[in-house]
Design a protein that fits this description.
It is a single chain. With 647 residues, this protein is mainly beta. The chain contains 6 helices and 46 strands.
Length: 647
C-alpha cells in the first residue's frame, strides 16, 4: 500500500464531525466505482474495480475536530496490477450550522511493480508503557526478488517516537534484510512558566513541547490507552525509478504499572536502569536483589514476569526461579556477578509483563587480586627456643588492588610434621578481607613442643581465591636448655658426615649432666666449603647459643703451635653469652704468598689442613670440655689477583 497525508482544520468555535469515503460511499475497503486504467476500460469496469482498494486512517475516516484544532488523516491506496487509477475522496463535515458540508478531492495513483517484497505491511507492536526508556519493537523482512540488480530503500519515520534500523540500505539480488522497528513514546518536556502581565496563552503555546518536525507532542490523555496506526513511508529505488510504499506500524500505549527497586540501582535520563556491581576480584561472587512490584491489580490477578536470556557462558547469572507478581507478593530476582577475566562487563536484562517492560543494564569490572609480599622479607629466622616457648616475627603484605580481596595464609611444613599435635608455626591473622590499599602486617609465631636436631622449616603461602600469590620461608630451632654450638646451614659436622641439607648443633654444656657428658664425647668440626689459595684468606663462622636460664662462658685454646696451627685464627677466643643470647664466632685461615719447603714436605702440593682447639664451656656451675677442629682444602696456585699482577 501507499498513502498521502491530509490535515483538516476546524476554524469554528464548536466541535465538528468529519467522515471521509472514496468515490463510492461505503464501508472501509469498499471497491472503487470510478477507476480509469491506463486509458482503457470504462467507468465502472468490474476488472478495474477489483484492482484497487482505498482505506482511511485513523478511525476509518470518522473523526471529531475540536475548535481551532486539526486532525491528520492518511489516505491509503493499494493496487494489484500495473496501471493508472483516478478516483475522488469525498469529505462529509457537520459543523456549527448542523447542515452537512460535502466536498471532494480528486486523486490519481499509478501502480508499478517493484521487486522489493515486504514480509508484512501491517506490523502490530506490543503494548508500551508511557514512561522514559519503555521500548517495544518488532521487525519486518525485506526481500529483493530481482535476480539482476540491487534494490535501495529508505524509511521516513512519521513520528519521532518511531525508529527504523537500518533506516537506509541496499539489498543485493535475491538478498534479504531484516529491519528492526522500535517504538518509544515521546514524553512532553516540562515547559517554563509564562511571564506575568503578558499574553500568557501565546507564550504558553510557544513553550509547548514540540516534536522534531515542529508538530506539538501529544499529551498523555491523547496517547494512553489509544491504538495508533503510524503509516511509515518507504522510498524504493530500482534501476533509477523511485516508488513509494507504506508500512503500517500499529502501537498501543498503556499507563505505567511496574516499579523496580534495587540497592544502588541508578536511573538514566532515558529511563533505562543501571545496576553496577563495581569492581569484583576474579574468583569472588557478588550478589544483588531486584524487587519488581505492581501498583494496580484486578481481583485475584497474578501478573506473569518473563526475563530476557542472559549469556549462559557469561558472568551475570539469575540465581532463582521467577515468580508472578501478586497483590501481596513482589517478584524477587537474585542476580550474581562472578568475573573470570580482567575486563569490564556489560549485559542487558529485560523484565517484561504483558503490557510493560523494563530494561536494566548490568555492569561490572573484574580485576585480578594484586596482593603481594614486600620484597626482602624471606627467609625469616625466628632464632632458637626451648620446647613450649614462643618466638614471634612479622612480615608485610602489600595490597594495591581496586576492590576488597579475601586472603588466606597456609603454613606448609617441610622437614618436620605436626599432624598429630599443635602447629609449630602459626600466623595471626590467618585469613581476612583487605578493604583498602596499603600494607598488612602479619605476625608469625614459633612454638615447638619437641626438640629437633636441625632447623625446623616451613613456608607461609599467601592465597587469594585458592590462587597462590607468593610465599615466605620461615625457620627456627628448638633446642634443649643449655649452651649449643650452632653451625651455618649446609655445613657438615665432620668430613665423613653426609648430612649437609640443614643446620645442626651439638650440645656443649647443658643444665642436665647426662646430656652434657654424652655430647662432650662427640668432637665438633667445621669444614670450609671453598678451597683456599696462596695469598688468600677464607672465613667461616658459627654461633654459641645459650638456651638456658643462666649466663655462660666459653673459651677456645689452640691444641698445638705447629706451622699449620699458625695459619688459623678464631675470634673471639673467649667470651660470655647471656641467657637467651648468642655470640658469633669467626674462624679464619690465611695462606702465605709462597709455601715454605717445610709446609710442602709435610702436607704435599694439595691437601687438607686442620686447626685444633680445646673448647671449654661453663654454665650453671658446670664445665664441659670438648675438642673443636676446622678443615680447609689448600690449592697450590696463587690467587687470581696476584696472577694478573705478575702478567
Amino acid at each position: 500500500p501507499t498513502g498521502l497525508k491530509l490535515r483538516v482544520a476546524n476554524r469554528g468555535i464548536l466541535p465538528a464531525r468529519l467522515a471521509m469515503r472514496s468515490s463510492k460511499y461505503g464501508k472501509e475497503g469498499s471497491l472503487l466505482s470510478q477507476t480509469k486504467r491506463g486509458g482503457g476500460g470504462k467507468d465502472g469496469d468490474a476488472s478495474g474495480a477489483a484492482a484497487a482498494v482505498v482505506t482511511f486512517n485513523p478511525n476509518d475516516g470518522f473523526n471529531t475536530i475540536l475548535p481551532n484544532g486539526s486532525v491528520d488523516l492518511t489516505v491509503c491506496f493499494r493496487g494489484t496490477s500495473e496501471s493508472a487509477h483516478s478516483f475522488q475522496v469525498l469529505c462529509f463535515a457537520l459543523g456549527e450550522t448542523g447542515q452537512p458540508c460535502k466536498f471532494s478531492i480528486p486523486c490519481r495513483a499509478e501502480v508499478v511493480h517493484i521487486p522489493l517484497e515486504f514480509s508484512t505491511f501491517h506490523l502490530p507492536l506490543p503494548p508500551t508503557a508511557y514512561k522514559p526508556g519503555s521500548i517495544s519493537q518488532g521487525s519486518v523482512i525485506l526481500r529483493n526478488s530481482s535476480g539482476l540488480s540491487s534494490c535501495d530503500y529508505q524509511f521516513k519515520p512519521p513520528s519521532p517516537d518511531l525508529t527504523f534500523s537500518p533506516l537506509v540500505g541496499s539489498i543485493p539480488p535475491k538478498g534479504t534484510c531484516r529491519v528492526v522497528v522500535k517504538f518509544e513514546p515521546c514524553l512532553p518536556e516540562p515547559s517554563g512558566q509564562p511571564e506575568q502581565g503578558g499574553d500568557g496563552q501565546d507564550e504558553a503555546a510557544e513553550d509547548a513541547p514540540q516534536a522534531e518536525d515542529g508538530a506539538p507532542r501529544p499529551s498523555p490523555s491523547e496517547v494512553i490507552n489509544k491504538l495508533r496506526s503510524l503509516w511509515s513511508p518507504c522510498v524504493v529505488r530500482h534501476e533509477g525509478e523511485l516508488s513509494l510504499v507504506h508500512l503500517n506500524v500499529q502501537t498501543y500505549v498503556v499507563e505505567p504499572n511496574l516499579k523496580l527497586t534495587a540497592p544502588g540501582m541508578k536511573a538514566r535520563g532515558s529511563g533505562i536502569r543501571e545496576l553496577s556491581f563495581g569492581t569484583v576480584a576474579i574468583g569472588e561472587r557478588h550478589t544483588a536483589t531486584l524487587r519488581l512490584s505492581a501498583a494496580r491489580f484486578e481481583e485475584g490477578e497474578e501478573i506473569p514476569v518473563s526475563l530476557s536470556l542472559l549469556d549462559h557462558r557469561g558472568d551475570f547469572q539469575v540465581l532463582n526461579a521467577v515468580r508472578p507478581i501478586a497483590e501481596a507478593r513482589d517478584c524477587v530476582i537474585h542476580l550474581c556477578f562472578a568475573p573470570r577475566e580482567t575486563r569490564e562487563y556489560f549485559e542487558k536484562l529485560t523484565l517484561s509483563t504483558k503490557f510493560e517492560s523494563i530494561r536494566v543494564n548490568l555492569v561490572g569490572e573484574g580485576v585480578l587480586p594484586s596482593m603481594s609480599l614486600v620484597e626482602g622479607q624471606s627467609p625469616i629466622d625466628l632464632g632458637f627456643v626451648v620446647p613450649r616457648d614462643i618466638k614471634e616475627n612479622t612480615f608485610s603484605l602489600k595490597y594495591v588492588s581496586k576492590c576488597p580481596v579475601r586472603y588466606r595464609l597456609c603454613v606448609e611444613e617441610e622437614n618436620f610434621s605436626s599432624s598429630f599435635g599443635p602447629s609449630v608455626f602459626s600466623c595471626h591473622p590467618s585469613s581476612g578481607i583487605v578493604e583498602s590499599e596499603g600494607e598488612l602486617d602479619v605476625s608469625v609465631r614459633f612454638k615447638p613442643h619437641f626438640t629437633h636436631g636441625s632447623h625446623m622449616k616451613a613456608s607461609v603461602v599467601v592465597k587469594c581465591q585458592e590462587d597462590e600469590l607468593g610465599s615466605v620461608r620461615v625457620e627456627g630451632r628448638c633446642l634443649a636448655a643449655g649452651i649449643h654450638l650452632q653451625y651455618p646451614q649446609g655445613k657438615a659436622l665432620s668430613g665423613e658426615d653426609d648430612f649437609t641439607g640443614s643446620l645442626r648443633s651439638c650440645v656443649a654444656a647443658a643444665e642436665d649432666g647426662e646430656t652434657a657428658q654424652a655430647a662432650a664425647a662427640e668432637p665438633l668440626s667445621l669444614r670450609f666449603d671453598d678451597p683456599v689459595r696462596l695469598g688468600e684468606a677464607k672465613e667461616e663462622h658459627f654461633e654459641v647459643v645459650n638456651t638456658g636460664s643462666a649466663s655462660g662462658e666459653f673459651s677456645f685454646e689452640p691444641s698445638s703451635d705447629d706451622i699449620v696451627q699458625e695459619r688459623w685464627q678464631i675470634s673471639p677466643a673467649k667470651g660470655t653469652v647471656a641467657a637467651g643470647g648468642s655470640a658469633r664466632i669467626s674462624v679464619q685461615v690465611t695462606m702465605p704468598e709462597d709455601i715454605s719447603p717445610e709446609f710442602v714436605a709435610y702436607f704435599g702440593l694439595e691437601s687438607w689442613i686442620e686447626g685444633h682447639w680445646k673448647c671449654s664451656i661453663t654454665s650453671g656451675g658446670k664445665t664441659t670440655t670438648t675438642s673443636f677442629e676446622s678443615k680447609c682444602l689448600v690449592k697450590p696456585e696463587r690467587a687470581a689477583a696476584e696472577q694478573e699482577e705478575d702478567t
